[in-house]
Design brief:
Layout: H1 3-13, H2 22-52, H3 56-101, H4 105-109, H5 113-155, H6 157-211, H7 215-267, H8 274-314, E1 335-342, E2 352-359, E3 364-368, H9 375-383, E4 390-395, E5 398-399, H10 405-409, E6 412-415, E7 424-425, H11 426-431, H12 439-449, H13 452-457, E8 465-466, H14 475-487, E9 493-497, H15 505-518, E10 523-527, H16 531-535, E11 539-542
Parallel strand pairs: 3-10, 3-11, 6-9, 9-10
Antiparallel strand pairs: 1-2, 1-4, 4-5, 7-8
Length: 555
C-alpha cells in the first residue's frame, strides 16, 4: 500500500475524533501504555533482586501495583471509549438523516434504497468500531512502541539495534499484504452494496414475480452476486492466513535472535540476567504491536471508505434551501409559466423547450398527453420539487424561486398514482402525525375523499393500524386515504396525478363531485387520460409527444 494512500485514509478519518471526551480518553490511554511498558523492566528488576540480592519485596510490590493500575485503567477506558463510540454513531445517524432530509426531491427520488440504508447502519457502525476498537489499538500500540524503543536504547544500544533491524523487515514483508487487503475490501464492499440493492428490489417485486412464475429465474441475478461475494471473501480469508503465517515467522526469528544475543551478553556479564526477561518481553510487545499496526491498515482503509460513503450524503451539493425567500401569503392566484425549459440530468432530450402558458387561479386544469410526454414532470415543476434550467413559474405575482419553499409547500398538496402510506394508524396517515388537526377537520377530509367508509368498517376506526405497504387495503382504498391526507391541508393548489386509476365507478363519481365542489376554492391540476374527468376541466394543457415546444391547447 502506498504511503500516500495510507496518509489520505488517516486524514479522511480524523473528523471521527471530533467527539466530546476523546482527549481525556487519549491521555488515559497513553498513561496505560506507559504502565504496560514499565512492567517488563520491573519484571527484570525483580529477577535481578532475587539473583543478586536486593529489595525484592519492594520491586514486586511496584510490579504488582503497576500491573493492577494498568488493569483498572484498561477496564475504565474500555467503558469510556465504548460510550464515546456509541454517541458518535448516533450523532452520525442523526446527521445523515438531516442531510438526506435537506436534499432536493429530485435527488432523493433517484437514490438507491440499499445504498442509502447502508450509510445509516453499516457505515456508522464501522465508524463506531473504529473509535471503540481500532483507535485504542492505533494510539496504544504506537505509544508502546515509541516508549519501549526509547527505554531499550537507553539500557542497551545493541539490543535496540536488533529491534530496529526487524522493524523494516516486517515493513517489507507486510506492505504487499496491506495492499491486497485494501483491494479486496474495496471490491467486497462494492459487491455487497450492489447485492443489497438487488435483494431490496427482489423483495419489493417478488409477489408480482411469483404470480408470473418468474421468481426462480430472477433469483439467479442476486444469486450470482452472492457467489461472487463468496469467492472474494475466500480470497480475503486466504490472504489473512498468509499474513498471519508471515507474522508468526518473523516473530519466531526475532524472538530467538533477541534471546540468543541477550543470553550471550548475560553470559559475558555485560548485562544482568533479569535483562534477558526484560528484552524478551519488550521485543514480543514491540513486534506484536508493530504487526498489529499493519493488520489495522486494511481496517483503517475500510473506515476511510465508510467515511467517504457518508460524506457523499453529508457533503452533498444537492442541498435544498427551504427557508430563504419570502413567505407566500396565498398560492391561490393566477399561475404564469414563461419560456420554461427543462431536461433531466444526463438525458439527451429536453422535456420542455420554451414552454409558456397561463392558468387562472381557482380553475380546474387537465394535463393530458401520451405517456412519456412529461405530465408528472410538469406537476413537479409546479410544486417546485424540481427546478427548470431556464424560464420561470410565476405564482401570486412573483417567481416561484422567490417564495420560501417551506411556506409554499404548505399551500400545496399532491396525490400521485403511487399512494404511499406510512407505518401507523389511519389517523397517522391522514394527519402525518400533525396533532394540530381537529376531529372535525379529519372527519371532513374523510367525508370528502370517501375514505369515511374505510374507517367505519375497521374495528379500531381511525386508530386501526396499517403498514407502509397498505395493511390489507386495496389500491383504491389507499388512494382515498391519500386524497384525505391532501384535503386536510386545505391547500391553495391541489394536484391529482392519475388518481382515478384504482377507483371503482362510485368512487370516481365521488372524486368528480369533490372537484366540482372545490372549483373556485383552489387551483386543481388533473393529470389524466379519463375523458369524463377532462370534461370537468376549465382548461386543458395538452403536452406533445415530441419536444414539447408549442403552446398548450385549451379545452
Amino acid at each position: 500500500m502506498k504511503i500516500s494512500k495510507v496518509k489520505d485514509s488517516f486524514f479522511c478519518i480524523l473528523p471521527l475524533l471530533n467527539v466530546p471526551g476523546i482527549v481525556r480518553y487519549s491521555l488515559l490511554l497513553v498513561l496505560h501504555s506507559a504502565l504496560v511498558v514499565t512492567i517488563p523492566f520491573l519484571s527484570g528488576a525483580f529477577i535481578d533482586a532475587l539473583v543478586y540480592g536486593g529489595t525484592a519485596l519492594g520491586v514486586f510490590l511496584c510490579l504488582a501495583g503497576s500491573a493492577f493500575t494498568a488493569l483498572l485503567l484498561n477496564v475504565w477506558t474500555r467503558g469510556m471509549i465504548q460510550n464515546i463510540a456509541r454517541r458518535k454513531e448516533q450523532d452520525l445517524q442523526l446527521s445523515l438523516l438531516l442531510a438526506f432530509q435537506s436534499l432536493k426531491p429530485g435527488v432523493t427520488n433517484g437514490c438507491k434504497t440499499g445504498e442509502v440504508a447502508m450509510k445509516f447502519f453499516r457505515d456508522t457502525g464501522v465508524a463506531s468500531i473504529f473509535l471503540s476498537t481500532y483507535y485504542p489499538m492505533l494510539l496504544g500500540t504506537s505509544t508502546s512502541i515509541l516508549l519501549a524503543l526509547v527505554m531499550v536504547l537507553c539500557k542497551n544500544p545493541l539490543i535496540a539495534l536488533l529491534y530496529l533491524v526487524f522493524l523494516p523487515l516486517m515493513l517489507a514483508a507486510f506492505l504487499p499484504y496491506t495492499e491486497r487487503f485494501r483491494r479486496l475490501n474495496r471490491t467486497i464492499r462494492t459487491l455487497y452494496d450492489n447485492s443489497m440493492n438487488k435483494v431490496f428490489e427482489f423483495m419489493l417485486i417478488f409477489p408480482f414475480l411469483k404470480s408470473m412464475d418468474a421468481g426462480e429465474r430472477y433469483v439467479s441475478i442476486p444469486g450470482a452476486r452472492f457467489r461472487a461475494l463468496r469467492k472474494m471473501n475466500l480470497e480475503n480469508d486466504r490472504c489473512a492466513v498468509q499474513f498471519e503465517g508471515t507474522n508468526k515467522l518473523i516473530l519466531f526469528l526475532g524472538e530467538y535472535s533477541v534471546l540468543g544475543v541477550a543470553g550471550w551478553l548475560a553470559w559475558k556479564k555485560h548485562i544482568p540476567v533479569g535483562d534477558i526477561v526484560t528484552f524478551q518481553m519488550l521485543f514480543l510487545s514491540v513486534l506484536n504491536a508493530f504487526s498489529g499496526l499493519f493488520q489495522l491498515l486494511p481496517s483503517v482503509e475500510t473506515t476511510a471508505e465508510s467515511v467517504r460513503s457518508m460524506n457523499e450524503l453529508l457533503k452533498s451539493k444537492d442541498v435544498e434551501d427551504v427557508l430563504s425567500g419570502e413567505i407566500i401569503p396565498s398560492a391561490g392566484g393566477d399561475i404564469s409559466i414563461r419560456h420554461l425549459s427543462f431536461r433531466y440530468p444526463r438525458a439527451e432530450r429536453r422535456i420542455f423547450e420554451d414552454f409558456s402558458c397561463e392558468i387562472k387561479g381557482g380553475s380546474v386544469v387537465a394535463v393530458t398527453g401520451a405517456n412519456g410526454t412529461g405530465k408528472t414532470t410538469f406537476l413537479h415543476l409546479i410544486t417546485g420539487d424540481i427546478e427548470p434550467q431556464s424560464g420561470s413559474i410565476v405564482i401570486a405575482g412573483k417567481k416561484l424561486a422567490h417564495w420560501q419553499k417551506r411556506s409554499f409547500r404548505r399551500k400545496t398538496a399532491s396525490v400521485f398514482q403511487d399512494s404511499l402510506l406510512i407505518t401507523g394508524t389511519i389517523r397517522d396517515n391522514i394527519t402525518l402525525k400533525n396533532q394540530n388537526y381537529s376531529e372535525a377537520e379529519i372527519a371532513d377530509a374523510l367525508r370528502l375523499s370517501g375514505a369515511d367508509s374505510i374507517v367505519k368498517r375497521m374495528p379500531d376506526g381511525l386508530d386501526h393500524p396499517i403498514g407502509g405497504e397498505g395493511g390489507g387495503l386495496s389500491g383504491g382504498e389507499r388512494q382515498k386515504i391519500a386524497i384525505a391526507r391532501a384535503l386536510i391541508r386545505r391547500p391553495d393548489i391541489l394536484i391529482f396525478d392519475e388518481v382515478v386509476n384504482h377507483l371503482d365507478y362510485q368512487s370516481r363519481m365521488k372524486i368528480r363531485q369533490l372537484i366540482v365542489q372545490m372549483r373556485g376554492k383552489m387551483t386543481i391540476f388533473l393529470a389524466t387520460h379519463d375523458p369524463d374527468m377532462r370534461k370537468l376541466c376549465d382548461q386543458e394543457i395538452c403536452l406533445k409527444e415530441t419536444s414539447i415546444n408549442g403552446k398548450p391547447r385549451k379545452c
